[in-house]
Amino acid sequence: MDSEFIALITMFLIASVRMATPLILAGLGEAVSEKAGILNIGVEAIMLSGAFFSFIVAFFTGNLFLGLLAGILGGIFVSMIHAVLSIHCKANQTIAGLALNFMMMGLTSFLFLIVFGQTTTLPSIGVFSEVPIPLLSSIPIIGQALFKQNVFVYLALIGIVVTTVFFYKTEWGINLHAVGEHPQAANSAGLKVIAIRYLACFVNGVLGGLGGASITLGQLGFFMENVTSGKGYIALVVVILGRRNPIGIFAAAMVIGFSQALQYNLQTLGFPIPTQVFTMFPYVVAVVVLFLSMGKSIDPTALGVPFERNKR
Amino acid sequence: MGEQQRVEIIKLLYRDVELLILDEPTAMLTQQETEYFFEVLRKLRADGHSVIIITHRIPEIMNITDRVTVLRDGCNVVTAKTSEITEQELSQYMIGRQLHSIQREPIVSDAGNEGLVLEDVSLKENGRERLDLPSLRIASGEIVCVAGVDGNGQKELVEVILGIRKQSSGTIKLDGVDMSSLSVLKRKKLGIGYISDDRQQDGLVMDMNLTDNILLKTHTDKRFIKRGLINDRLVWEDTQKAVEEYAIKTPDLKTPLRYLSGGNQQKLILAREMAGDPKAIVAHQPTRGLDIGATEFVQQQLLQRRAKGCCILLISADLEEVLLLSDRIAVIYKGRFMGVFPNTKDLNLSHMGLMMAGRTPDVREESL
Amino acid sequence: MKRYGNFLSFLGIAVLTLAISILLILMVGSNVNQAFVSFISGIFGSVYSVSEVLVKATPLILTGLGVAVGARSGFINIGAEGQLYMGAIAVTCIAFWLHDLPAIVMIPMVMLGGFVFGGVWSVIPGFLKARFGISEVITTLMFNYIAIGIVGVLVRTVLKDPSSSLPMSAFLPDSATLPVLMSTIRLHAGLLIALIFVVLIWLLVWKTPFGYEMRAVGLNPRACKCSGISVYKNILRSSMISGGLAGIAGVCEVSGLHHKLLEGISPGYGYIAIIVALLGKNHPVGVVIAALGIAALQVGSLGMQRITGVPTSISSIILGVVVLLILARKSIFRRLLTDE
């Protein structure tokens, strides 16, 4: 094979993995949450919160790892509000998620303006640098894409492995599944439905916050209003496309990451195709996949339904 | 359902509990299963476990308990040793007044109507056979009762008659009209009243008020619609009449059904389904979960309809009710009729119980 | 206690929201008094500011009404944004295609077109839900992005105004534009159209057998099935109407306000519509009140930013907080709402 072609592929793969990383992290979190029966369309808010707080802390302490930690806490903050509303208050989960999106969109840009004022140049920080893993990173084509990346990519990869094992090989995964499919039965079998759901929301916050932080601390090095620009919604699509299966989520996120990488490259090369074609791409694919999988119910039975112990 | 209940119970026993609280544990069991279950409870008692059993079945109370407490309207009416109380006393405590027995009149003569006729109805779902019934005719003025343990095709049977599920083969006729391919609404308009076993899920919209729940069957009736719009006043008048006729206790007609008692909810269903003198009534566990007063009201209503020449299909798991109301009894097991008997004095109850459990008793041997 | 409990709990939410707003204003370091004065005068200060509230309320009423109709039958429509864009595409295409028609024919034509485009965009997720039980929440959301993408592509390709370098269409023919209600302001006949639909939808949902079926399906589909009311048909119908109304909102925005198709004609009206429907309790009159309230909040916060420098994003925070508080109302004010 042509060495130039291989270089091109390698480059695309590296870019795709970078684009996919926030989606993988947030998607895994959402998958855990949805498996337990909590549909949180506030992923955008979780990511925005993670992106904002990680940046602020990293900017003022100069420590990226403290920033990363703050991003996780920011994500947990949002996901736990959603958890309390949907589990304790038995509120409509969709509307709660949507309201959180509004609130965090406003709050992050409000706080950002308070801290930095109206500036022409965005305050910026250095990002996490690449840490090549010896040996693995020299595998041709995929080596650099997967093993010569920053900490977020590695966290996403570890996340995939851990959640796969967790979902399919541990009793915890089965319990999670039971709580989402049939909370009443799970309850009478002695599972603590409410605690498990809170825990799932917590995990969603951690991973979503990481996903948000990976945008500011892993890619951009700055924060601006609506910096996530709908990545939270794409993460929801990734979860559907990947059918809540970690490997599926990885694949879906990679497809979307690749189309985004392609979009930027075609843009710079001056192709006459409007970039909107590529922004639409993941959604069109998702709709097509949904149509193809018609007839097979794939949603957890109790998704979005509050748990009431005394109700049959 | 019977199976599930048993598993639930076994799971509880397995956990080796100190105190066992059972809420209507025998609701889903056959006579034989109940007896066996009580044996288990007696063993538990002998081993030093405590059991609280909540039931509305007086024979069970007399059979199994040591002490009995009667609760009515949330108040403790009486607590006594079972050995020191009689069945009559107990039932008086439960209803708070004398239970007068229901008078049965002889069957109304067949007025030449064909009644409700099922011809070789069968139902297959997901490759499983749910129903496979021989022909059955319910004459006008007759109550045919389908007795059996829950989950043996009763729900499927009533839903096929109503058109909620589509039968795989066979025909269903009402007074000679083939309804097999008609929609639910058309069947109801032809004259079928339907009382479901799950009134909260199937029969009512709990968050709607009384008038709106009356509309559930009648919202397309021409008499309620003027220039395409529903005439609220007419519906209101109809509902008011129903409330008075059926003595439904409600603050007003705007109250969501959720805030009415089970008995009053059921009365509203009766009012709706019996309006317009239906030719047939399909009543699935119409007294389930009702107190004795409401149960008696429902049973009286069914008997009144019978007297007016209605064909009634009653499905009940309560043997007492079956014997009280029915002219004929069909025992159902796994979607098949094990036998159809006239309800007479010499009915062999233990045979029926065996049939409900899927065993065919050797009748000849017994009668020898 | 219970009689006043409901009222008191909402009063509590109002007080909490006010407290949070004051806190936010103080964080900026602005004068609270001045901020509120500028907020109020930003709404009622002039005929223009009042008309701006109405201009913003128009699409919110229509989309909110759409979401409310869907919600009545249990169809959670997150896709009003995309349906609005589809309506906008419809009006532009029809106006250029049939440009010779007189206004009296053209306006009903574009309305119908917008209704059909928006409706189709919503009935597809409706079909997926009714037939296969696929959650409409995610599908309608995805359809938003596709619709927005289609607009982006169209204004750069076939619908692009060749005389401009910007991605937007040429101006619509005059016959396809809605009249302005007063010469110096932007308020257009779209508001009247919205109000007509409020009355129509009220009649439809509360007074007709069809509306009855829809409401019953939303509350208990199982009971409807047992009574011979088709859940499938009613979800299809209500999702069609739901999206159709959002489509009309798109028509009004293009015909009444922008007079051309361009990207970003909706600053998230379709999402705010869900909040409009929630606050308006899915009732047409409630929707109007909620839409006016939210429009006033947004316009007022613009005035506040101009004079006191409090960022307008405060309106989005307040909106989110109000909804969260309403969702949590029964838990926060449990003591007020129960008899004991």
What does this 3D model show about the protein?
The complex is a heterotrimer of chains A (312), B (368) and C (340). Chain A has helices at 3-35, 43-61, 64-88, 93-116, 142-147, 151-169, 171-181, 183-188, 193-220, 231-241, 246-269, 276-292; strands at 131-132, 148-149. Chain A is mainly α and 312 residues long. The radius of gyration of chain A is 20 Å and the shape is globular. Chain B is α/β, with parallel strands linked by helices. Residues 97-101 and 363-368 of chain B have low confidence and may be disordered. Chain C has two domains: 1-28 and 311-340, no CATH class; 47-308, ABC transporter involved in vitamin B12 uptake, BtuC (Orthogonal Bundle). Chain C has 14 helices and no strands. By secondary structure, chain C is an all-alpha fold. In chain C, 58% of the residues are buried. Chain C has helices at 2-28, 32-44, 47-72, 80-97, 103-132, 136-154, 190-207, 209-219, 221-226, 231-258, 269-279, 284-308, 313-332, 334-337. In chain C, helix 3 packs antiparallel against helix 10 (231-258) and helix 5 (103-132) runs antiparallel to helix 10 (231-258). Helix content of chain C is 75%, strand content 0%. The longest helix of chain C is centred in the middle third of the chain and has 30 residues, at 103-132. The interface between A and C is large, with 51 and 47 residues.
> In terms of per-residue confidence, which ranges of chain A show pLDDT below 50 for 5 or more consecutive residues?
none
Q: Distance N terminus to C terminus of chain A?
A: 63 Å
Our measurement of the CA-to-CA distance between the termini of chain C, rounded to an integer number of angstroms, reads: 9 Å
Radius of gyration of chain A: 20 Å
Shape of chain C: globular
Largest sheet of chain C: none
Computed over alpha carbons, the radius of gyration of chain C is 21 Å
Poorly predicted residue ranges of chain C: none
Can you describe this structure in just a few lines?
The complex is a heterotrimer of chains A (312), B (368) and C (340). Chain A contains twelve helices and two strands.
Would you spell out the secondary-structure blueprint of this structure?
The complex is a heterotrimer of chains A (312), B (368) and C (340).
Chain A: H1 3-35, H2 43-61, H3 64-88, H4 93-116, E1 131-132, H5 142-147, E2 148-149, H6 151-169, H7 171-181, H8 183-188, H9 193-220, H10 231-241, H11 246-269, H12 276-292
Antiparallel strand pairs in A: 1-2
Helix pairs in contact in A: 1-6, 1-9, 1-10, 1-11, 2-3, 2-4, 2-9, 2-10, 3-4, 3-9, 6-7, 10-11, 10-12, 11-12
Chain B: H1 2-14, E1 19-23, H2 31-46, E2 50-54, H3 58-64, E3 67-72, E4 75-81, H4 87-95, E5 116-125, E6 128-132, E7 136-138, E8 143-147, H5 154-162, E9 169-174, E10 177-178, H6 184-191, E11 192-195, H7 199-203, H8 210-218, E12 225-226, E13 229-230, H9 232-245, H10 262-274, E14 280-284, H11 292-307, E15 311-316, H12 319-325, E16 328-333, E17 336-342, H13 349-356, H14 363-367
Helix pairs in contact in B: 8-9, 8-10, 10-11
Chain C: H1 2-28, H2 32-44, H3 47-72, H4 80-97, H5 103-132, H6 136-154, H7 190-207, H8 209-219, H9 221-226, H10 231-258, H11 269-279, H12 284-308, H13 313-332, H14 334-337
